[in-house]
Design a protein that fits this description.
alpha/beta; Rossmann fold
Length: 223
Amino acid sequence: MSEGHSLKERVALVTGASRGIGRAAALALAEAGAHVIAVARTVGGLEELDDEIKKIGGTATLVPLDLKDYAGIDRMGAAIFERWGKLDALLGNAGILGVLTPLTHLQPKVWDDLIAINLTANWRLIRSLDPLLRLSDAGRALFVSSAAAHYNRPFWGGYAITKAALEAMVKTYAAELTGTTVKANLLNPGPTRTGMRAQAMPGEDHGANGELVHFRKPAPPSS
């Protein structure tokens, strides 16, 4: 356990907490002393996370939830208020890649799922949890984005469009928080060895220390 639990008595909610960036963030928050509300679809993954958090002396509340269950997000917000009366931090990390394909080939269900998870679910989190963040003396909301939102790569349209929309939403929310104790920000973690990265780039090479070595900006479109 790290010295000086800087987040002692803080309550932090992490979506997509059972693996990848969300899991690492949940563990770091717990190690710093925060009580972690871990949200993910898979019960098994959440239970494994809980075991790891207990090993480092932390505490967590597990919330198995599909973020397309918007009423479930509202119920979760109400339960947080009932138990803690506030929320100090929100990490909106959950997201899906969809399918890398031309926009004209993207199936409507895939498009709908991308919008639902990458954008609408985060709006519902803001809508439900903003009052709780305002009850904290220093509420923080952080949402995970991607460079794909800016590069306009061919075949990445569904993912890129939803991440660009997420960024616009969070920047708007941040502006609306002016004058409050709550802050909202975006995080682009860069190339990271996650399941989503492997799905997007299955043939990608790694360096001796595991770093990604073949991630480049796409060339500008020809005139």
